[in-house]
């Protein structure tokens, strides 16, 4: 079992979702919510408030991995800056606890959850509610997104791991092959020297 | 005397400069340098490395204020995200130590140091070297920028403070004036009732 903390970074609302992943594609929701900070507060205080809440979630739920939504700057400039700052803060907190951090783009999350990279927020919420067998849809959308991010990570990670293992195995085979060639060349050389 | 830590945020090079401000416009450099992280490292590790170095500077130099360059997203998208993430991390570290944080834009810094918001990096380096009476120009430019940011904060802060005081005094006068008008109206009313 792997426990993932999904984080949809934001200053006004930071989505938080904890999901356990079991064998195959089995997943179950552990906790979901949002950290909110008042827009009228100063930025450093808002970052501290979000950081404190994220750390409370880390203490309470002991995730083994943190999955964060990758921020793009296409959108509103002001919002993106705050979002980037929160994502940096969350990555720092995870790194300081020795937790691995993975970033997933919104379209990766949508594709993993709904099969389409272009699903809208509503569809993602409907799908994640179904996938996790929740009695009702998580609200607000940021909370649902955080759960979707965690599930996306669980469903993508085995694929990424298998790929990494396959590459490592291929590299080992290549190494062994080279070593055998060398040994063969040496043996031939020795035989040649004897002859 | 006020001690300011200026931070020019960045992942590859984060400029750090400590400046003491005395009476009037007197300023003196305490320390200058950069925190560097290798671009091939993963983002969370890079953020942690910068954060650790910034905290070592805070421990060693005990600044009373932290001045951070305000990030804009006009520039290269990839770089800006990293810069925003570092600025968020530094603001968090300051907030967790109870240190006030101020953000200044690059043009505020240029205007404060050189008298022109459109001075180039080279001019800022030359001016800050002169202002702080340094034997040689701080290198790289990020280090010079961090010092310039700290000086900008020291030279702008008294103005900002005076403005805040003047506004508070004006508000108090307006309050008193309204109270006197109310009292006068009441007295007139009482006299009218008697007559």
UniProtKB/TrEMBL annotation, chains A, B:
Its main location: cytoplasm. One of its GO terms (molecular function) is DNA binding. CDD domains: RuvC. Mg(2+) 2 binds at residue 69. It is found in: Cytoplasm. PROSITE patterns: RUVC. Keywords: Cytoplasm, DNA damage, DNA recombination, DNA repair, DNA-binding, Endonuclease, Hydrolase, Magnesium, Metal-binding, Nuclease. Mg(2+) 1 binds at residues 8, 142. GO terms for cellular component: cytoplasm; Holliday junction resolvase complex. Binds 2 Mg(2+) ion per subunit. GO terms for biological process: DNA recombination; DNA repair. The active site is at residues 8, 69, 142. InterPro entries: RNaseH-like_sf (IPR012337), RNaseH_sf (IPR036397), X-over_junc_endoDNase_Mg_BS (IPR020563), X-over_junc_endoDNase_RuvC (IPR002176). It catalyses: Endonucleolytic cleavage at a junction such as a reciprocal single-stranded crossover between two homologous DNA duplexes (Holliday junction). Coiled coil: none annotated. Its cofactor is Mg(2+). Its EC number is 3.1.21.10. The RuvA-RuvB-RuvC complex processes Holliday junction (HJ) DNA during genetic recombination and DNA repair. Endonuclease that resolves HJ intermediates. Cleaves cruciform DNA by making single-stranded nicks across the HJ at symmetrical positions within the homologous arms, yielding a 5'-phosphate and a 3'-hydroxyl group; requires a central core of homology in the junction. The consensus cleavage sequence is 5'-(A/T)TT(C/G)-3'. Cleavage occurs on the 3'-side of the TT dinucleotide at the point of strand exchange. Belongs to the RuvC family. Homodimer which binds Holliday junction (HJ) DNA. The HJ becomes 2-fold symmetrical on binding to RuvC with unstacked arms; it has a different conformation from HJ DNA in complex with RuvA. In the full resolvosome a probable DNA-RuvA(4)-RuvB(12)-RuvC(2) complex forms which resolves the HJ. HAMAP family: RuvC (MF_00034). This is Crossover junction endodeoxyribonuclease RuvC. The lineage of its organism: Bacteria, Bacillati, Actinomycetota, Actinomycetes, Pseudonocardiales. The gene is ruvC.
